[in-house]
Amino acid sequence: KIRFSSGEFRAAGRQLLVSPEQKLVICAIPKIACTEFMRLMYRLRGDADWQMSPHFRSDTLSLANFDIDRATEIMNDPLWTKAVFLRDPLRRLLSAYLDKFVHAPNLGLHADYGL
């Protein structure tokens, strides 16, 4: 059974995207299609602007929008589907290397640290 401490809830609550109508919780992990999962959640709730960048919207529905007691109920309710999507670590490393060092050599680490 999941029991959040207040610190765990603050840290994890924003990464757990919620669609109450579908009783769906998706753990959005950066660099593992989290933008697309956020868009999916907007689309599931019928948002006309679901295609816009979700990262700067103030209406993202995450577990953090609920109080800790309700969030705990959701995470322990067997009628809710909880999902997390992972990537192969070696492919993720290769993707990050290509993205940061090959395709954008004048941005990110290169610009910040002269690598």
Write the layout of secondary structure elements.
Blueprint: H1 6-13, E1 16-19, E2 24-27, H2 34-44, H3 68-76, E3 81-84, H4 89-102, H5 109-113
Parallel strand pairs: 2-3
Antiparallel strand pairs: 1-2
In short:
This protein is of the alpha+beta class and 115 residues long.
Gross morphology: globular
Helix content: 40-55%
Q: What distance separates the N and C termini?
A: 46 Å
Strand content: 5-15%
> Which segments are poorly predicted (pLDDT under 50) over 5 or more consecutive residues?
none
Task: List the secondary-structure elements in sequence, H or E.
Answer: HEEHHEHH
- Mean model confidence by pLDDT: 87
Number of strands: 3
> What structural class should be given to the helix and strand makeup?
alpha+beta
The main sheet orders its strands as 1-2-3
Could you tell me the radius of gyration in angstroms?
17 Å
Biggest beta sheet attributes: 3 strands, mixed
Number of helices: 5
Please provide a written account of the structure.
The structure is a single chain. This protein is α+β, with helices and mostly antiparallel strands. The chain has 5 helices and 3 strands. Strands 1-2-3 form a 3-stranded mixed sheet, covered by helices on one side. The longest helix is centred in the last third of the chain and has 14 residues.
